[in-house]
Amino acid sequence: GQQVMQIPQYQHVQEGEDFTTYCNSSTTLSNIQWYKQRPGGHPVFLIQLVKSGEVKKQKRLTFQFGEAKKNSSLHITATQTTDVGTYFCAGRHNAGGTSYGKLTFGQGTILTVHP
Amino acid sequence: DAGVTQSPTHLIKTRGQQVTLRCSPKSGHDTVSWYQQALGQGPQFIFQYYEEEERQRGNFPDRFSGHQFPNYSSELNVNALLLGDSALYLCASSLGARDIQYFGAGTRLSVL
Question: Could A105 and B102 be called an inter-chain contact, meaning their C-beta atoms sit closer than 8 Å?
Answer without folding.
Answer: no
